[in-house]
Write a structure and sequence with these properties.
four-stranded mixed beta sheet, 29% strand, alpha/beta, Nonspecific Lipid-transfer Protein, Chain A, single chain, 2 domains
Length: 187
């Protein structure tokens, strides 16, 4: 078996099931008793192959090499595209992100306007135990997804009134400058 085939096999037979099973073990999904989801992933290209995935009652994922019997969903991706995704994750500048986090003191509160009529979802990030300075950002889901995929920059969102900002503005600008390289580029 080639080295690349071993990478695919390890991902589908070990890594993906371990990730799924650890999440659903902590967060059971209601209403799935007696339900089985089956899918097939076909990696097309050098070292590729088929992998079957079976999820029982949304409680456990088992995967196997070879085609799945009666898959509800079949996913086909080239080995080249699969590797591009994996390399994007491994090529991320983790060391520079560590340095940026290490050098930051203060807190960021993000409020996501999730559903109309409901309170926003809140997320607070405290850097190195420092509560202040503090910046508070508020946006709706459309704006958040646009920011995350690079469709809009933070400054554009702020100028258009789609991103509300309150608190220590110099700290907010510091965060934007420090962490800008880790965000997708705007379209």
């Amino acid at each position: 078996m080639s080295e690349i085939s071993q990478i695919y096999e390890k991902f589908f037979l070990e890594v993906a099931p371990a990730m799924f099973n650890s999440v659903v073990g902590a967060f059971p999904v209601p209403g799935m008793k007696g339900k089985t989801f089956v899918m097939q992933v076909d990696l097309v290209g050098e070292g590729g192959g088929s992998y079957g995935i079976k999820i029982e009652e949304a409680k456990s994922l088992a995967s196997f090499k070879g085609p799945a019997e009666k898959p509800m969903v079949s996913l086909q991706i080239s080995t080249e595209d699969f590797l591009r995704v994996m390399r994007t994750i491994s090529d991320f500048p983790w060391s520079r992100l560590y340095d940026a986090v290490r050098d930051t003191r203060g807190s960021l509160v993000f409020e996501l306007e999730w559903r109309k009529g409901e309170p926003p979802l809140g997320l607070k990030v405290t850097f190195n135990g420092a509560e202040s300075p503090c910046i508070r950002l508020r946006a709706d889901t459309e704006t958040l997804f646009s920011l995350l995929r690079g469709g809009m920059g933070f400054m554009d969102a702020f100028m258009q009134g789609k991103l509300k900002v309150d608190g220590d503005l110099p700290f907010g600008l510091q965060l934007m400058n420090q962490f800008n390289e880790f965000m997708p580029t705007t379209a």
